[in-house]
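To close the section, here is one more complete example, presented without commentary so you can practise reading it yourself. The ligand is 1-O-phosphono-alpha-D-glucopyranose.
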Amino acid sequence: MKALIPAAGLGTRFLPATKCVPKELLPVVNKPVIQYVVEEALAPKGVDEAIIINSHQKPQIERFFSEDAALVEHLKSHGKADLAEKVEEVAALPVSFCYQDDPKGLGHAVLQAAELVDDDPFFVLLGDYFVPNKAMCKAMQEVSRAHGNCSVIAVAPVPHDQVSRYGIVAGEVVASPDGKTYAEEEPGAVLKLSGLVEKPSPEEAPTNLFIVGRYLLSPRVMELLKTQTPGAGGEIQLTDALARLLEEEEMYAVVVDAKTGCDTGTPAAWAGVNARMTLTDPSLRAAFFEELGSEELK
Ligand code: G1P
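Output:
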């Protein structure tokens, strides 16, 4: 089973940093964002490969996941075996690449991997968000198993005036795999979907449950994407293809606590994630405060 990671965007929000460095390689502490996403993608049972949907403008991402024998040798011969191991670990991750050179939308990006998913269900993980405890995809897998291996997407509540920034779902709460029935906005709740809409106005939005960027999808969606016409923003939207999939197959959503994930999509969010990851790492916390030079902040 494959996990797809769309990563072909230009990262304009991070200019000038992203003039030469793809935004996916911006570090969170000492690892690039995309390494966290790849490690999360490979965590669910059955996932044997992460496929990054890149653009040819960003060869640095491929370089990052390639072997570098000279660097490893240099580190080893200078008594830095621990660092050599970290470099080798990255190259050992089962990662491959395909390309989206025209930025025509998320649905178009996913379609570029159609030949690589082997007619199996597959995950999609958006590349500017990662979940350090890696639990979200596993929870989605449990819901899928409980409902005949159907498609499942992760959703979370968002303030109503922000719905037009996201894909929004509608559905009816059903029992969760743990046997409980949760309230609609409570983490753990499972919804049998009745609709999905991309970037609705607050008046049109059926709920305030937004698609957070984790999908477990039936391979049928690849067929639907082939004939998907442009939607919101003139782009080929994955959400629109999923709305068509819902006419053919049952689909579910699981409500997650979006705060268990780290959004790195804007400079402020990325900086906040760096602070959070540093503060929650016992080996860095004290030094971080020392660098900030403020006792009171403790
Ligand atoms: C994409 C999806 C949207 C989802 C969002 C999450 O939108 O199309 O449904 O809610 O990611 O970040 P984008 O952020 O690419 O506009």
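Once you have examined the tokens, check your reading against these statements. The pocket of 1-O-phosphono-alpha-D-glucopyranose is lined by residues 106, 126, 166-167, 198, 210-211, 213, 237-239 (CB under 6 Å). Residues 2-265 form a domain with the Spore Coat Polysaccharide Biosynthesis Protein SpsA; Chain A fold (CATH 3.90.550.10).
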